[in-house]
Structures are given as C-alpha cells and as structure tokens.
Amino acid sequence: xxxxxxxxxxxxxxxxxxxxxxxxxxxxxxxxxxxxxxxxxxxxxxxxxxxxxxxxxxxxxxxxxxxxxxxxxxxxxxxxxxxxxxxxxxxxxxxxxxxxxxxxxxxxxxxxxxxxxxxxxxxxxxxxxxxxxxxxxxxxxxxxxxxxxxxxxxxxxxxxxxxxxxxxxxxxxxxxxxxxxxxxxxxxxxxxxxxxxxxxxxxxxxxxxxxxxxxxxxxxxxxxxxxxxxxxxxxxxxxxxxxxxxxxxxxxxxxxxxxxxxxxxxxxxxxxxxxxxxxxxxxxxxxxxxxxxxxxxxxxxxxxxxxxxxxxxxxxxxxxxxxxxxxxxxxxx
Length: 333
Hints:
Elements: H1 11-30, H2 42-66, H3 75-115, H4 121-139, H5 143-146, H6 148-157, H7 168-196, H8 214-233, H9 241-259, H10 266-315, H11 321-332
Helix pairs in contact: 1-2, 1-7, 1-8, 2-7, 2-10, 3-4, 3-6, 3-7, 3-10, 4-9, 6-7, 7-8, 9-10, 10-11
C-alpha cells in the first residue's frame, strides 16, 4: 500500500506509522469478546464505541505529529475526509435517535413497576397498558436507523485510498486513515445491525494480509459477525442482550397481570416484578453510558471537521470556494 516508487519514508515517518498501527492492533484485540454472550451487550458496544473514539483521536494526533498542514493536503484527500465525516455524523444521529427511543421505553417500564406496587385491579390494567406500550415501542421501526445501510455501503466504497504522489507524509496519512476507516465501518455496521434487528446491515470487510493489524481485525470481525448472525437466525426479538433480558421478564409477567395473580402465584409474581426491576435498571444504565459514548464520537468527528474548515478558510487549498460553503451548511444542519 505504500509504493516504493516516489518519495521514500524516513525512519521518523516509519516510527510514527508503526506506532499508530501497533496501537490499532492492540485496540482490536481488546475488542475480541471473551465469551460469545458478551457480543452485543451494551457494555461491549460501549467498549467498541470508546475504542473508535480513541482511534479517531489517534489519527488527529498523527496529523499533528506529521506536521502536514492543510495547505499541503491534496484536494482529493480533503474531499474524501469531508464526505466521510458528514456520513459519520448522520450515523451518530441515527444511533442517538434509537438510544433515545429505547430510553423512552424505559420510562414505560418505570410506570409498570410503579403500578405493580399495588394489587389493585385498576393498577394492573394500567401496568398492562404500559407493557403494551413498551412492546410496541421496542418493536417499532426507526426511519433514521433504517437509512443506515446505504450510508454504510457508501463508506465501504470509500475504503479505497486516494493515490498519493511525491508525498511521504501523505502516504503515511492515507495508510493510517485506512485503518481508521476499516474500524469505523466495522463498528458502525454492528450498531446498525443491532438497532435495526437485521443482519443485512453487517458488512464483511476484506483487508490485505500485509497490514500489521489485519490478523487481529479479521479474527474480531469473523467472531463478532458470526455470533450476531447466529442470534438473528433463531428469531430473537432483539439482539441487544439487556433488552432481551427485559423482554423475557415481560413475557413472564404479562399473563399474570392479564389473568390475575392467584394466591399460589404470589411469590412467583413478586420475584418476577423484582427481576423486571433489576433488569430494567441494568438496561437503563447501559443505555446511558452507551449514549455518552456515541455523543463523544459525534463531538470528535464534528470538532475534526470544524478544525479542517477553519484551516481551509485560512489557507484556501480548495479550488471551488463553494465546497467549503456547502460543507459548512451540512455541518450546521
């Protein structure tokens, strides 16, 4: 990927690139689930998003260390960066909207638990109504998330690197950016699959074995994607583990609430209510930390765009001034 033709890489540039790729390799290894049950837990998804934030921060630091000012960037690099970043912002907005929807569902669960604190028939009716609302909430389609597939396909198509001529620093930047893009598409495709409930959003990326992080990535992708496809193959309502746990509690409680609790079922009923409360709280906590991780990624992408746009205004390397204007309008939408 770094051609021997043209400018050669100095020892200093190779050191920077090697350090970046070694860190990426270790980061990918840390994402390997210790157990198949870890796949698509909210805690694992948080770890994946935090890992992605760290990689994007690393590429920002690398650009600084390369001392490659924007005025030396080729137009095609800038075009690729701006195009990718606006798509990442769209994905973040979609993921955030789904997390908001799930959090709204948690409010309905709180109403259920409040009403089940009494044995009044009226309270049972209210609890049943709230459960009906919760089931409808989690099964409803989110148009924003459903639109992720074409965005992901476009990002996958952008993995091919622009050719770099006569710029050793440019070659390092483009190769490092390739690693960033591969991890980004991988993580975002998993989020899209989890939130849409469809394995069609999973992407299988092929990377060159010559890359030092290729083995770690391929093993991670094969492990995670296979487990997600297995989860979908058994007809799960949702592949999010904490959400599935809540759904299991709901399935146990709903008939009791609907038909009434017999004296012999009193202990089972109370235990089931306690289980629902515990699982609902775990779901809520997981959604909160994952929402913060997605928000952090959104801010990293947005601040990176802002920094580039500020430099473009000063150095003006883009031949068409409308490019900057249009991108700024996209960033403000």
